[in-house]
Amino acid sequence: MAESWDRRPAYLAALIGSDIGASLTPAMHEREGAEQGLRAIYRRLDFTALGLGPEALDELLVATQRLGFAGVNVTHPCKQAVIPLLDELSDEARALGAVNTVVFHDGQRVGHNTDWSGFAEGFRRGLPDAAWRQVVQLGAGGAGAAVAHALLVLGVERLVVFDTDAGRAGTLAEALAARFGAARAVAATKLAGAMAAADGLVNCTPVGMATYPGLPLPPELLRPALWVAEIIYFPLETALLRTARALGCQTLDGGGMAVFQAVGAFRLFTGIEPDAGRMQRHFAALVAAR
To answer: Were 169 and a residue from 39, 109, 185, 187 both cysteine, which residue would form a disulfide, CB within 3.0 to 4.6 Å?
Structure first.
């Protein structure tokens, strides 16, 4: 039995970021690896737990690359900071200016973004009949850039971006308009008017997380005809989703994005097609066990 196990292909991967102890990504990768006949080890490299700052990112990349890791996922505060440390970027990562997956290949560091594709696939499955005429997005940070890209790829006709930093919202809208067309994305400051004309709402702010409780907008701006989506998965049911569901809105939690970004990263690390349905079931079991 031991000999048979030792002959299985092995791969190492890691998640680099701050305060990542609650991440379910390691468990998803290790379980799917085992199901695929791999000896998968996925480690957390938490700046906070290690007593390091983000300036140690290059050192961790060097270490994992030299130790034979297949690659690493990176999260806050590394998604933009990692780019100058890479040799190559995928088209999507270059367009978004953000990387969440780094693959080590032939001595090169190649950056990818599976956040956008993860959100897109979760949305296709979770809200397949959603109306697209106008969508309001709250938040224009790194995750917001990925989600906005996904929404426009999916076919949203007009995306209205809001952020507490109006300049950041404007920068994101300009970048999106340059890629998708001037009429497709705008930044705005009058949330009530945009919500009144919207078919859907996506929250890409941290408001609603366990550490940032509350609603990201006044509840009176919600109405039953809206669909409402989150990217937060801890907790899976945020105050926004609970409020929207009580009004009769269609809702989508952040679990789909969490699973499908991991699906994409697993594929990149191993070259093996993961079983997305199995990973979804495992994710649901992990969440239920918390």
So the answer is: 187
Owner of token pair 């697993």: 266
- Tokens coding 221: 């701006």
pTM recorded for the entire structure: 0.92
Q: Could you write out the three-class secondary structure of 187-244?
A: ECCCHHHHHHCCCEEEECCCCCCCCCCCCCCCHHHCCCCCEEEECCCCCCCCHHHHHH
Task: List the CATH number of the domain containing 14.
Answer: 3.40.50.10860
Per the annotation, the verdict on 79 as an active-site residue is: yes
Please check the confidence at residue 3 and state whether its pLDDT lies above 60.
no
pLDDT of residue 1: 47
Which residue among 31, 79, 149, 282 is the active-site one?
79
**Domain containing residue 63:** 2-113+258-288
> What's residue 5's pLDDT?
54
Strand partners, 13: 42, 71
pLDDT single digits (tens) 85-125: 999 999 999 999 999 999 999 999 999 999 999 999 999 99
Residues 185 and 132 in one domain: yes
